[in-house]
Queue: 2 jobs
Job 1
Amino acid sequence: MEFTITDEQSAFRKSVLNFSKKEIEPMMEEYEKKSEFCRPAWNKLAEFGIMGLPFPEEYGGAGAGVLTTCLGMEALAEGGASEGLTLSWGAHSILCGIPIWLLGTEEQRQKYLTKLISAEWIGGFGLTEPNAGSDAASLKTTAVKKGDKYILNGSKMFITNGPIGNVFVVIAVTNKDAGHFGISAFIVESEFPGFSVGKELDKMGHRTSTTSELIFEDCEVPAENLIGQEGMGFVMVGKTTLEWERTCLLAAGIGSIQHALDESVRYSQERHQFNRPICKFPAIQHKLADMKMLVEGSRMALYRAAWMKDQGIPAMLEASICKLFMSESGLKICDNAVQIHGGYGYMREYPVERHYRDTKLGTIGAGTSEVQRQIISKMILNPKKAKGGK
Amino acid sequence: MDFKLNAQQEEFLKKIKKVCMEEIAPGASEIDSGNKFPSENLSRLASEGLQASMIAGEFGGAGNDLALGVHAIEVVSRACPSTGMAVGTSMFCIGKTIETHATAELKKDILPELAKGSIIGAPAVSEKESGSDISYAGTTAEKKNGAYIINGTKICVINATESGIILVPAKTGDSISLFCVDSKTPGVKTGDPYKTLGLRGACACDVIFDNCEIPEKCLVGAEGEGMKIINDALDFLRLCIAAVANGISGAAFDISKDFSENEQAFGKPLATRQPIAFRITDIFVETDIARMLTYQAAWKKSQNMNSASFIALSKLCASETAVRNTNRAINVLGGAGIVQNCAAERLYRDAKLTEVLGGDSDLMRGIVAEDLLDE
């Protein structure tokens, strides 16, 4: 056992933290207030190389491993990048970029991945529908092959980067009788005929990331934009993307809860009541200790899943544990952070107010806590068949 | 980063686990109900090399680090928490403290005996007037003709009924020094074992020092530097308690899984019921987190990193997790979990002690917060 990161990883982490504090954090409050995508920050992320962190250098990426990518995203959020910004990155680089990189053809990578990495284009991912979330069997969006095209009909809901995206990985049913093996994945450009975007959705948190419905009305997608084989979309994309989603996409979450803790420590030292800083009160200290415990537990769960992925060890269980524990810890941590800040914590100008709203998405997005518990329980329990008669 | 033990360590744990599951687990209930010190278990584990595992090679040990140690104590405690607490306290709090701070002579006298399992160590820190406040000691050690005369009473001394050596902080002048006392020394008296809520096999009792004369070499570290060393000893003890708590959580998972997979309700296995399955999932997930924190804390301590607050954090997490998990296990087992001397009921009582021993949760939170505010 060994629990240190390498010197290079440590130096990289520090450089991202400094970059985030200096270049990104100062822009956040304004865009948060406007509830607007922060394109200047987005461009800076691209310049710094954040978009291409996990991808090979031949496509313009940094070729960083999973753990290093996680450390970078953690540092970005810890430095003050909003959850909205890091979520947009996740939809762009992980949800859209990873399936194209790992399952796409060389032509698809050259055409799309390079544009995602350079941030010339913005990417997104469409699985969820108005009436289907984690229950993939009830997906309604269809793709029918006609000549050298697929014709897509249906809609996708809650799509991060929907209003601003140029390209989306979209999951659609190609054979409704084949269950999970009748679902395929496509690369859909926003300029394709029949593609449109619904109105921007007004969210509780993650307000610097834009969200909308994607609508497909006889949308024409060239057959060469199919990712992998027909019918393998759900199985392959799901399998490839989920572990990445529950490591790299979550990594910023660690930075955010660390940021909430740091802000709370600082505030508790500055705020005086009854002639002493409030950090002198055990009731405040114990909240800080609980926050620290949950941050460290979440961090270990994240690093382990990332480390396993780097080692090529399957990490479905560990990734789900990470997602479940980190997101539920996030709620407790941010609740304590606002409580420690008192009235100020309820005010928009304090970042903990934002964390409190943003962190709620954690137990909902990418499979709710209930879905995670369902996944984990299936992996750890093996009920014996019922004996007859009872 | 490397989250795995090496092959040799895995092999060692497998061996310990086999003995624990086959020979130790079946007797756990009897040890509890009889308030019985698990001497046979400790001898059996010594024959497998458990007590020698963390002691340096030159003293007859295998020289493994604390990360392996917490794994091993967890494995033992999953079978019998009392046994884990008894042997772990001796290995961690006594063995590691002596190895780190005692003179070469004392180490040569004691460590090979601890490694063989022929003696057991007991920490005598608390007194009636002070538990976690180690700066207070009513017990005194007076230097006289090249010897120390110890007088005073310590309470809640785990392992004391069976121990060969006792680690005792005592006042020397204005400061505190730490001594390693042979329990057969004239003037050392042990009281009756307490009847505790849980961990009843790791019997605790009072230890009275009545003009107990010990040679100078029994001083651990320099005179007056006891506080620093006791803090170190407490780090070791808390790692051990965290490992015991993780073992208890693991046992709570085992009985819940087994019961839910095999027992039927309304014609279906309990494990197919979502509230039951999710409850067991929570046991599994929280145990997993507590374990990782404990392993990391032990590793940090082995690397001589500044780790007191991380150890406190892992002890806090592991013990409170064990209390929650044994509570959940009883909810899974229902009526079968509340009968006296069934595993669930026993584990529920055992878990509570991990929260209290070695400094309670309030104290642990204080240590963690102090470090946070200090940074």
Job 2
Amino acid sequence: MLDRMRRLFVATLLPLIALAESETPPEGPPWRRDLLEAHKEALESGTPIFLYFTKTY
Amino acid sequence: MLPDPALRAVYGKATWLYVYRDFSGSESDRRAERVLLRLGVSSWPQHFLVDPTTWETLADTGRSKESFLRAFEQARVAGRGAPDAHRRLRDAEARAIALEEGGSVALAQKGIDDEDIVVRNRALAILAKRDVKSIAKRALRLLEVENDPFRYEVCRILKEQADPDSASALCGIVREPKGSRNPNVLRIRAVEALGTCGTADSVEAIAPFAASGEYFNGLTGISIDALVAIAARHPKTKGAVRATLKRGYPVPPADGEARAMAACTALARKIHAALGEKGAFPDPYDGRAREKLMR
């Protein structure tokens, strides 16, 4: 029984936890993923760049 | 927090860049790493506002709605960017990628003095593997580069090379980690390097951290190890090192909280062992035991 639960955890929950560590940006502002694109846009609009650094845990 | 209606007002006041590392070494991971290197980021998560022309950090947004809004109010860019700022960035990215994708030692020798910090970081990575002696030779100048990932790597190389000529520059970083986003980690790397490079003169710079009694800070134990190593190489420092270590017995936590107590006792044991004390380590380690050990 314990073994089955462990397997279920590894197969289903672990990937979900990993995914929750935000490969996807948080909801809200219009995110860019490319520095060059963001840089060009910031220079043209005269705005600062907001950088959000995260990683897989 | 970002979907909060109160923050929608700032969506148009910045360009939003999401930088995610998965450490796979893939192209997208290397692209993210280049942004980290450019901004000198070495811990996660972090978020702040930068000027796209100067790359100066304008404000740290913090983690509350209030601090976020305040940061956006404070952040002012230098102006509508220098006309060549984007071209320079694009060219620098291309030079960095050229180094990533099988750059030669000759290209790295050129890149280590590049105007762009990402190029310098990529060049350093190549030289660290294939021409490490050239890094040790330039160490003093390289330690002045105010970029944490860069200085971490130089410190790592110096630790391996055990080069006493770099001791004074490393002490400078320990005393004042100028321009660091993560001064404690930078100090840790510099003190680690001093463990092999340090001279008798280095003891004074390391001593405050070895004697801090901060049992939750990795810098404390590393500073103790470095002093012990220096004392072994430079016997005339033994008295000063011994006095420093004695001062460093930590104050036991007043509330006796288990995790703090364990960390405190572990540090006290480390000092006791480093001093080579003959008597048994006191059990329990409390205020009275500390006073006795410090005599």
